[in-house]
Amino acid sequence: MRHITMVARMRIIVGKVKRTTVNLDTELVGEAREILGTRTTTDTVHEALRDVIRREALRHLAEHDWGMTLEDLNEMRTPRTFG
Length: 83
Hints:
Blueprint: H1 2-10, H2 26-36, H3 41-63, H4 70-77
Helix pairs in contact: 1-3, 2-3
């Protein structure tokens, strides 16, 4: 059930905010800011945390056994005509 919680958390933009002091490598923050397109250090850290959570949720989804074959998936993607 953990992956469901992670997916649900992805939808929360900002829940509770905790003020804290952290020592950050300014070069890493600057590089992350450029990659993420954020303006502030806070925005950069929040977006990086969201990205970690999103990647973990996607990893859980990829590991899930959906009970489908590649052929089943391709069949679902094929447009159908009625008539």
